[in-house]
Amino acid sequence: LVPKDLQALIEQYSAAAPEDDKTDTLSATLPRLDLPANQGHVVIDELRWGDEVARSTTFDFTSSGEGIQVTALSSEGPTGNLTGTLGVHSSEQGWQVQLAATVTGNNSKDSLAADFVGADWLWHTGNTSLSGSGTTWNSLLNSMRGDLTLAGAYAGKEPTPIEINAKLDNRPGEFALDNMSIKVGQGVITGSAVLSGSEQRKLTLALSS
């Protein structure tokens, strides 16, 4: 499966769906990840998603009847390198998900290499640690908690600095971003965002600039 085929496959499944289908998906019970016992090492020379490019992506994985663990994840971007881990534990009680990722600047002249020409997002610093559990997609999203920081630039005619900071708060029945701060160039937006409801999702924003 080459990257362009993988992208087409994902786009097919992520196409806009009727509201009823989206509601059904969110309320559907998460499947048991009763996977064959296996472990391995994956190497992907290049990943492309539109204009974005990642090189030398590698990770180790272990699968079993209780889910999957991804460790030693590493990927090179135009101005930063991503490292991280991901774990999904599956049981009759649903999923338990843990994600940790860090972006560090690579300070490399390779950022100007032909592979990265045209990339729009130039991330050089970031850190996130998220966890959650649930029996449906809705309950899993609502349970997510942790912190997110990300800094870099948008590559226009002149690069525009961007910095994002937010905290995911575990609120019953809501997916909430608190202590949110988004800096774009000289402008700053702060506040919170809450996505609530099940049959009809409601987005509540409290922002100031």
What would you say this structure looks like, in words?
The model has no long low-confidence stretch (mean pLDDT 85). With 209 residues, the protein is mainly beta. 13% of the residues lie in helices and 59% in strands. The protein contains three helices and eleven strands, in the order ααββββββαβββββ. An eleven-stranded antiparallel beta sheet has the order 1-2-3-4-5-6-7-8-9-10-11.
What structural class is derived from the secondary structure elements?
A: mainly beta
The helix fraction, in percent, is 10-25%
> Please, how many helices?
3
Strand segment count: 11
Assess the beta-strand content as a share of residues. Answer: over 45%
In a few lines, what is going on in this structure?
By secondary structure, the chain is mainly beta.
Map the helices and strands.
Layout lengths: L2 H11 L5 H9 L10 E12 L2 E13 L2 E10 L3 E12 L2 E12 L15 E14 L2 H7 L1 E10 L5 E12 L2 E11 L2 E10 L5 E7 L1
Antiparallel strand pairs: 1-2, 2-3, 3-4, 4-5, 5-6, 6-7, 7-8, 8-9, 9-10, 10-11
List keywords for this structure.
single chain; 209 residues; mainly beta; eleven-stranded antiparallel sheet
